[in-house]
C-alpha cells in the first residue's frame, strides 16, 4: 500500500466531516442572518478567509521545514517504492496531507461541536465605581 492510499483513507474521512461542518455552519449562518443586519457580513467573511489563508501558509511552511529536518537527521524514513517521487526539499509530498487534514479537520470539529460560545456580559461594577472584593477569612 502506498502512502497516498493511506492518506486517501484519512482525507476522505476528513472531507466528509468538512462537508457536514459546512452544512451545519450554513444552517447556523442563515439563522443568524435572519436575526441580524447584513452590514459587515462581507468584511467578516474576508477576515475569516484571510485568517484561514494565513494559517494555511504558516502550517505548510512549518511542515516543510520540520519534515525536512526530521528526515535529514534520520528520525523518519520512507520506502522509496511507496512514495510518489515528488519532493519538497527532501520531504515527500505525501507528508503534507496530514497538514491539509488538520486544516480541515480542526475547524470542522469545532463547528460540529457547537462552535464558539457567546461570551457572558461582564458584571456591572458595584456602586461607587469599584469592583467588590471578597474579604479573607481568618
Which percent range describes the beta-strand content?
A: under 5%
Low-confidence segments, given as residue ranges, are none
How many helix segments? 3
Q: Provide the residue-averaged pLDDT.
A: 85
Q: What is the CA–CA distance across the termini?
A: 69 Å
For the biggest β-sheet, the strand order reads 1-2
Total domain units: 1
Largest sheet: 2 strands, antiparallel
Q: Classify the secondary structure makeup into a structural class.
A: mainly alpha
Give the C-alpha Rg. 23 Å
**What's the total number of strands?**
2
| Share in helix | 55-70%
**Backbone shape:** elongated
What is the string of helix and strand elements? Answer: HHEEH
Structural features, described:
This protein has 138 residues and is an all-alpha fold. The chain has one domain (3-37, 49-112). Helices cover 59% and strands 3% of the residues. It is built from 3 helices and 2 strands. It has helices at 3-35, 41-72, 96-112; strands at 87-88, 91-92. The chain has a two-stranded antiparallel ribbon. Helix 1 runs parallel beside helix 3 (96-112). The longest helix is centred in the first third of the chain and has 33 residues, at 3-35. The protein is elongated, with a radius of gyration of 23 Å. It starts with a helix and ends in a 26-residue tail after the last helix.
How do you describe this structure in short?
The chain is mainly alpha-helical and 138 residues long. It has one domain.
Provide the fold topology.
Layout: H1 3-35, H2 41-72, E1 87-88, E2 91-92, H3 96-112
Antiparallel strand pairs: 1-2
Amino acid at each position: 500500500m502506498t502512502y497516498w492510499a493511506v492518506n486517501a483513507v484519512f482525507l476522505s474521512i476528513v472531507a466528509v466531516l468538512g462537508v457536514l461542518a459546512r452544512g451545519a455552519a450554513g444552517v447556523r449562518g442563515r439563522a443568524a442572518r435572519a436575526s441580524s443586519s447584513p452590514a459587515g457580513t462581507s468584511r467578516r467573511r474576508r477576515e475569516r478567509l484571510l485568517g484561514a489563508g494565513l494559517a494555511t501558509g504558516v502550517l505548510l511552511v512549518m511542515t516543510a521545514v520540520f519534515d525536512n529536518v526530521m528526515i535529514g537527521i534520520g528520525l523518519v524514513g520512507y520506502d522509496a517504492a511507496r512514495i510518489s517521487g515528488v519532493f519538497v526539499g527532501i520531504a515527500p509530498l505525501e507528508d503534507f496531507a496530514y497538514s491539509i487534514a488538520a486544516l480541515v479537520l480542526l475547524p470542522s470539529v469545532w463547528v460540529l461541536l457547537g462552535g464558539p460560545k457567546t461570551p457572558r456580559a461582564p458584571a456591572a461594577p458595584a456602586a461607587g465605581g469599584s469592583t467588590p472584593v471578597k474579604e479573607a477569612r481568618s
